[in-house]
Design goal:
The complex is a heterodimer of chains A (922) and B (572). Chain A is of the alpha+beta class and 922 residues long. Among the domains of chain A are: 179 residues, no CATH class; 304 residues, MetI-like fold (Orthogonal Bundle). Chain A is 40% helix and 24% strand. Chain A contains 23 helices and 35 strands. In chain A, a hairpin with a 6-residue loop joins strand 22 and strand 23. Chain B is α+β, with helices and mostly antiparallel strands and 572 residues long. Among the domains of chain B are: 68 residues, no CATH class; 59 residues; 249 residues, MetI-like (MetI-like fold). The radius of gyration of chain B is 32 Å and the shape is flat. The chains are: A alpha+beta (922), B alpha+beta (572). At the A-B interface, helix 1, helix 8, helix 9, helix 10 and helix 11 of A face helix 2, helix 3, helix 8, helix 9 and helix 10 of B.
């Protein structure tokens, strides 16, 4: 017996193991790819949730402000009686100051640094503190006898009252590194502290060491008065001023100053003093040369005296320029801060809204959320409030342009809802939070209409998050108190915290990275901010929070389908007819040259086709539009007429010699074809000169011309076909030739009649764009033709010859055999060929990028551009930030393309397989 | 039925080996003659022929346009002088088009004339009526100068001294240009050689310092060690700086020599400009050279086109980096795709049990070829760059962070993406080839006692090799022309360095690269002026198309050889 060597056996096993592993992993990779695309786009559809974020000892029961770092809750500021501050991170702030009054204000200075200012009270002097995330130390730096009182804050700026003057103070952290000499001077206790926890307090400064090796740094807070109004409190004596509120203009140093004043009560029913508000715009100008800063206080001008309720006043800045103020009588006032007079414009709401309950402007002021009471009294068990999202930004802009200084506020959506006790807005996203409390929740649930089914979720005390543009309720959760505190983490989610009776701080986090995306926003019409109507729209670039990114996939799908269908319109007839000719008529030798040539054409890179489409085809088509249309519509019929002529008895001898099966015919056809092309091109130019004044583009955009001729051009094929289908028995061939003369005349005639009803250029066609669908249909058709041709040719060739022979033996002509025997047999194969072509068209990228103009419009106009999904990905993905909403939507469209083409190809493959089976049986 | 027919058919079948087709063809002829009905449907046949002809004409037009434009872009055209409205237009006549005369508002044929001389206050492009071109002068004394900056110049070359400004003769010019080219070569030798080496080593020192800092901070080395290492690195750095200064001085010297040799260019509008002779890349008198010289110039320009680096925002110079990038990326892709594709095909055909599941997988793999390439690009950027690459950066290139090394597009990720894209092509054609290997061969091998792998390696694979090669070449052809997935996986407009150079580790897979297809996209679509970039983009297009078609042609040849070989041994 021979024995195989051990080494060989091991090698054998190893090799087959390796091959198996590699083979399986490639197969897995295929599905892994699908899975990866899916997992990248899946987070878009994850439901937004409120997630519990922990409990912390709060040492108080009152809600205050929640300060939040980019990653975690940092400090919880309580304006309570006993303690002012408590920290919620692991390290507790050393000794919370006590006895602060409620005017304490906090602001985030920059990343991981916070500033806290508090006014003087009976037990403690005024002070402000600074916090570092790594070393939470309150540091009194601004201890002054002047009793500063914080009246408003914005970032690092604080508006303080200092004696009689109103000052705007900017706080700033100064860091300096200690020299080794200075380090040696430190006392032992401080050094020990520094070694232990890497930070220590020295005087009014904080010493910090970020690591053992890093140099020792000293942090101290410096403040600088940006401007001051010296005798402010003399002008407005404290007796009449109940409060001073400041609404800073984002990014600027000035803002709106709201002065609340006591007005002696005149009405007997109202025993309390009524606070009225005086609205002034505080602006700051700086002399560029001297650097002198001057401030001015200008009052807003109202046409009629308006009474503002101080507590409910919600002013908001729009585009850092316009100020919008809502009053409770359903009136909104807008002011252009650059207007010298500061005269107000009235914005009105649609009539059907009742009195305004609540109003919260969204970030940037472009949109706002509002609640209205019902106009008519309602049954007690039905929702008694209407909530709506208002497009305030658009109304403001419209009001500035309007002559009568009045504008209606458009409503983005409205809904019946339950009255909320508190409304808050996410600072970066279009999300509104509402806290609702219902005394009779169980009764409420029964009577709700099915339309407001989501309202059923309302329990006793609910916090709900609503998306502003669509009104979708993103998530709801139970929150027992309406005095919760809010804070933002990054731009992603938001924290809410409230203390309970056990002095625990409960924290929940609202996680909504892609809240603006839902099935509705992707596939349905949405009324976007500052848009007239609901629309499908794709506008992805978002420069700022104020710009609303619009992610509707419909325009992209439309563009993809439009490009594919138009190019199939061009490619399918050409490819199928060519396949029929080369498989049924052409002799083998020629076919062996023609087929590889066409298949080679499939490998011409699409970037080359795209480039040629943009640089060569587009300008040529632009200057010969009518010729192109004429060639497209009448070339096949002209050829047909030639054939008819050859069918006439006098020319029959040409065809019966088998001429059309030979190479000679192809040469003749090429020559004749070129001549016909030239003729049609000239004719097209002639038509353009006579009917459209030499420029169809000008005609399409409203210039002079004859509408009927354009109609005639478009319906020419239909006219030919219908005229030919008239059953004429005698002199049939001559009739058909006659039709070619008759056809255009009839087409123009019908076209003129039609043009009385529909104006093509306004309804069907429109403006001419240089890079348009017509151009892309030619270029993309060029890419699709070889694919359809090759598969169709294979399908036709594989029809068994016995069938042909049988048909021919029965006396059928070659064409009769082809049309009635071969084509029906190969139909499923041809169909699958077209489907594969369709798949290629859908995924074609470079041609679409270069030759379509990439405008996301939804028209069927062949002279208009489009934006296809694939091109959109190619253009936008390199610039989309990783893991952003935009990025994920692009992944989603890639997944859609993948699934669609994969399914299409699988279906085509299935058809082909069945077709092969059947042919085997034949 | 027809004995004579049968005899004839048999005779033909013996000669051609194509029995049924001949029978059928003959039958057509017989039937056509016999029946008047045969003409039925002739119009449709005309329409079918028309469709085929349309496609053929389109192909002809496509290649005609590309080849003619590319040739014209490299061809040294003669320069014409035309008087138009008291203005002298001197330039190269380019394409003809129909346009509207701005004065008379009449449509007329006009020619685009390229006047060059961008920096002499002359419009680069101007239109003149075609009729005027017939009587155009061709002054023999005009020079066409290709410069390093500011694009070509058309005019006269004079000595630099303004007092004795006279035209320089042809021989002197060519001497000047040749000498300048030699100096430039010397300069490049220093800049690309020792100077580049020094820069690379200095960058390495910087990274090493950063690494020591990091180790120190994490406490992995003591302070003394760190100080010692720092000192050593500092010493190296000072040495490097010293030799850097020396080399820079040498370069400066060469430059000053270069600057000293000057010529004056005198434009047709009377303006002149004195430039160093080294600014001139190539100069010739287009109207006084004969056809042989013209051909020589044409091939010279062709060579510079494929061998030089691009200038002037890619609108001039050559495409060498793009060509190199394309080839490097394709070769890298081949290294991935060949073993993986062949092994998968072998697994599916030879190892896995043939059944429903395998045929399902086969269909899936088949269909992957039809998945849009952009989808692969999206996968590539998401998976390779942002997932795998970012992890590699975290593990091995911490010192360079936050600048990504592998965490962004690069030649490795691009070629992996394209490998994924083309692997179905290789799998399908390898499978086909494996199927075509007769069973008897395998059985004979097994009969001789060979193991499965021995059979596979020695008998089956060699037989299937042409099929594998066909698949591979088709995959390469597809990869060369594919641009969409590259847009996001690492292709750039202008790469600072090639992915292969003389610095360790010699092959830099993380580098972004240039690609011919992207070059075309960028120039044709995003360039400042389409008119200016037109010649370059057409030349690049023809180069790309030539590569793709050449690869395809080889594949088709191999395939037909393969078919012949297996057809011949049907009885195996």
């Amino acid at each position: 017996m021979y024995q195989t060597r051990r080494r060989v056996l091991i090698l054998d096993r190893f090799a087959s193991g390796l091959i198996t592993v590699v083979g399986l992993s490639v197969i897995l990779a295929v599905f892994g790819m699908m899975l990866f695309l899916f997992s990248s786009s899946w987070p878009l559809f994850k439901l937004e949730t409120f997630k519990p974020a922990g409990h912390l000892n709060a040492s108080s029961q009152t809600a205050g402000r929640l300060l939040i770092d980019e990653t975690a809750p940092l400090a919880f500021l309580l304006p309570g009686k006993e303690e002012a501050i408590c920290a919620v991170t692991a390290r507790l702030i050393e000794s919370p100051r006590s006895g602060r009054d409620s005017s304490a204000e906090a602001a985030a200075l920059e990343k991981a640094k916070y500033e806290f200012a508090a006014a003087e009270s009976t037990s403690a002097p005024a002070a402000s503190w600074i916090f570092q995330r790594s070393h939470l130390t309150p540091q009194a730096t601004q201890a002054t006898q002047l009793a500063p009182r914080c009246v408003g804050q914005d970032g690092a700026h604080v508006l303080l009252r200092m004696g009689d003057s109103l000052q705007r103070v900017q706080f700033q952290i100064v860091r300096q590194f200690l020299s080794s000499e200075e380090q040696r001077m430190l006392d032992i206790k401080t050094r020990a502290l520094l070694n232990e926890r890497r930070w220590a307090v020295a005087g009014s400064d904080v010493l910090v060491k970020s690591s053992q090796q890093s140099p020792l740094a000293k942090l101290s807070l410096q403040s600088e008065t940006v401007w001051s109004i010296p005798d402010f409190y003399k002008t407005y004596p404290q007796q009449t001023l109940s409060s001073v509120r400041f609404v800073p203009r984002p990014g600027k140093k000035d803002g709106l100053l709201i002065l609340g004043s006591h007005r002696p009560s005149t009405q007997k029913s109202n025993t309390q003093n009524e606070a009225t508000a005086e609205l002034k715009i505080l602006s700051l100008s700086e002399n560029q040369i001297t650097g002198e800063k001057t401030s001015s206080l200008r009052a807003l001008q109202f046409k009629e005296p308006v009474h503002f309720d101080l507590d409910r006043l919600q002013p908001t800045w729009i585009e850092n320029r316009y100020l919008v103020i809502a009053s409770q009588n359903n009136h909104f006032f807008s002011v252009d801060s650059e207007d010298a007079q500061l005269s107000t414009t009235v914005l009105t709401l649609p009539q059907e809204f009742g009195p305004l309950n609540r109003f919260v402007p969204a970030f940037g002021g472009a949109a706002a959320f509002a609640e209205f009471a019902w106009k008519e009294p309602r049954a007690s068990d039905s929702p008694n409030v209407k909530c709506a999202s208002l497009d305030v930004g658009r109304a403001t802009r419209a009001a500035q342009n309007a002559a009568d200084r009045q504008a209606a506020i458009p409503v983005l959506w409205e809904d019946k809802c339950v009255s909320s006790d508190r409304l808050e807005m996410h600072p970066h996203k279009r999300v509104v939070y509402r806290w609702l409390k219902q005394s009779n929740a169980s009764d409420q649930n029964k009577s709700l209409t099915p339309n407001s089914r989501e309202n059923l979720n309302f329990a006793n005390e609910t916090l709900e998050a609503r998306e502003l543009t669509t009104g979708r309720i993103a998530a709801t959760t139970l929150v027992p108190t309406n005095s919760f505190a809010m804070g933002v983490v990054d731009t992603q989610g938001q924290f809410f915290g409230w203390p309970d009776e056990n002095k625990n701080l409960n924290l929940i986090e609202f996680i909504a990275p892609h809240v603006e995306v839902s099935i509705k926003s992707l596939f349905e019409k949405i009324r976007y901010e500052s848009y007239e109507n609901a629309s499908y729209s794709w506008q992805s670039t978002s420069g700022s929070d104020e710009f609303q990114a619009k992610f509707s996939l419909i325009p992209l799908i439309w563009g993809t389908v439009k490009a594919t269908l138009y190019s199939l319109l061009f490619a399918v007839p050409l490819a199928i007819f060519a396949a029929v000719y080369s498989s049924e008529i052409l002799d083998r030798q020629t076919r062996n040259i023609v087929k590889p040539t066409l298949e080679m054409m499939a490998s011409v890179p699409s970037v080359v086709l795209g480039f040629l489409a943009a640089i060569v085809i587009a300008p040529w088509v632009e200057s010969h539009v009518v010729s192109v249309l004429l060639i497209g519509t009448s070339m096949p019929f002209l050829l047909y007429i030639f054939g008819v002529f050859l069918q006439t008895p006098s020319a029959r001898h040409l065809t019966t010699r088998g001429l059309y099966a030979s190479r000679r015919l192809l040469l003749w056809v090429i020559a004749g074809f070129a001549a016909m092309l030239w003729l049609l091109a000239r004719a097209g130019m002639w038509i353009e000169r006579t009917a459209f004044g030499g420029d169809l583009k000008a005609f399409l955009s409203g210039g002079p011309g004859t509408e009927g001729v354009l109609w005639g051009l478009l319906i020419l094929p239909l006219v030919f076909i219908s005229l030919w289908s008239v059953p004429v028995r005698r002199a049939r061939n001559w009739y058909r030739i006659g039709v070619f003369v008759l056809g255009p005349i009839a087409a123009i005639g019908i076209g003129s009649v039609l043009s009385g009803h529909t104006t093509l250029r306004n309804d069907l066609l429109g403006q001419y764009a240089q890079r348009n669908t017509l151009v892309i249909s030619i270029a993309m058709g060029f890419a699709i033709i070889p694919i359809i041709y090759s598969l169709a040719e294979d399908a036709l060739t594989s029809v068994p010859n016995s069938l042909r022979a049988g048909s021919l033996a029965c006396g059928a002509s070659v064409w009769q055999t082809t049309a009635w025997v071969v084509l029906p047999t190969a139909a499923s194969g041809l169909f699958s060929a077209v489907m594969v072509g369709l798949g290629r068209g859908i995924g074609e990228t470079m041609i679409a990028v270069m030759a379509t103009g990439n405008s996301a419009v939804m028209t069927i106009n062949p002279f208009d551009g489009l934006r296809s999904m694939a091109a959109n990905i190619a253009v936008e993905l390199p610039e989309a930030a990783q893991a952003s909403t935009h990025y994920r939507i692009l992944f989603l469209s890639a997944l859609t393309l993948f699934l669609f083409t994969f399914t299409l190809n699988s279906f085509a493959e299935l058809l082909r397989a069945r077709y092969r089976e059947r042919n085997k049986a034949l | 039925m027809f004995p004579f027919l049968r005899k004839q058919a048999d005779a033909q079948a013996a000669s051609k080996g194509n029995q049924p087709a001949v029978l059928f063809k003959t039958a057509i002829r017989i039937r056509s003659r016999a029946s008047h009905n045969a003409t039925e449907g002739v119009p449709w046949i005309w329409v079918c022929a028309g469709a085929l002809v349309t496609i053929l004409l389109l192909i002809a037009a496509l290649f005609g346009v590309i080849i003619s434009q590319a040739t014209s872009a490299l061809w040294p055209h003669s320069v014409v002088r035309i008087q138009q409205d008291q203005q002298t237009v001197i330039g190269v006549a380019m394409r003809q088009e129909e346009g509207t005369d701005p004065q008379t508002n009449e449509r007329q044929m006009r020619r685009l004339v390229y006047q060059a001389n961008r920096d002499f206050g002359i419009n680069e492009f101007t239109f003149i009526p075609s009729a005027k071109l017939a009587g155009a002068e061709r002054p023999a004394s005009l020079w066409f100068v290709e410069r390093r900056e500011w694009g070509p110049f058309i005019g006269r070359i004079q000595t630099a001294d303004p007092a004795t400004a006279i035209d320089i003769d042809e021989k002197t010019v060519s001497n000047l240009v040749n000498e300048a080219a030699m100096r430039a070569a010397e300069l490049r030798k220093i800049e690309k050689g020792p100077l580049a080496d020094l820069n690379a080593s200095m960058e390495e020192i910087r990274l090493d310092k950063k690494k020591i800092e990091r180790l120190l901070e994490t406490g992995k080395i003591s302070e003394d060690d760190a100080a010692a290492k720092h000192a050593e690195l500092d010493k190296q750095l000072t040495e490097s700086l010293k030799s850097h200064a020396f080399l820079t001085e040498k370069v400066q010297q060469l430059r000053s020599v270069d600057e000293a040799i000057k010529v004056t260019l005198l434009a047709p509008n009377g303006q002149s400009k004195t430039i160093p002779a080294s600014q001139i890349m190539r100069a010739y008198q287009p109207n006084s050279i004969n056809i042989i010289q013209r051909m020589g110039l044409f091939f010279g320009r062709l060579w510079s086109f494929v061998s030089e680096e691009p200038r002037e925002a890619n609108t001039e110079g050559g495409v060498f980096p793009a060509l190199f990038g394309t080839v490097a990326m394709t070769i890298l892709m081949t290294l991935f795709v060949l073993p993986v594709g062949v092994m998968t095909a072998v697994y599916m055909r030879e190892i896995a049990k043939q059944g429903f599941l395998v045929s399902l997988v086969r269909i899936a793999v088949n269909n992957l070829a039809g998945v849009p390439s952009i989808v692969y690009g999206v996968f590539g950027v998401g998976f390779f760059c942002y997932s795998v690459g970012a992890t590699i950066d975290q593990l091995f290139f911490q010192d360079k962070l936050p600048n990504p090394t592998f965490g962004t597009g690069g030649v490795l990720w691009a070629s992996l993406t394209l490998a994924l894209l083309t692997v179905p092509v290789v799998i399908v054609s390898t499978e086909e080839a494996l199927t075509a290997v007769p069973r008897s061969l395998r059985e004979a091998s097994y009969g001789c006692g060979a193991t499965r792998m021995q059979t596979l390696w020695n008998i089956v694979l060699p037989k299937a090799m042409p099929g594998v090669m066909t698949g591979l070449i088709l995959a390469m052809a597809r990869a060369v022309g594919e641009v969409a997935p590259l847009l996001m996986t690492g292709v750039v407009k202008l790469a600072p360095a090639l992915p292969v150079d003389t610095h360790f580790p010699f092959i830099h897979l993380e580098r972004s690269f240039m690609h011919l297809g992207f070059h075309i996209y960028d120039l044709g679509f995003q360039s400042r002026s389409t008119e200016l970039s037109r010649p370059m983009v057409f030349a690049s297009t023809s180069l790309l198309v030539a590569i793709v078609l050449f690869l395809n042609f080889i594949a088709i040849k191999i395939r037909s050889e393969l078919r012949k070989r297996f057809e011949g041994r049907g009885a195996f």
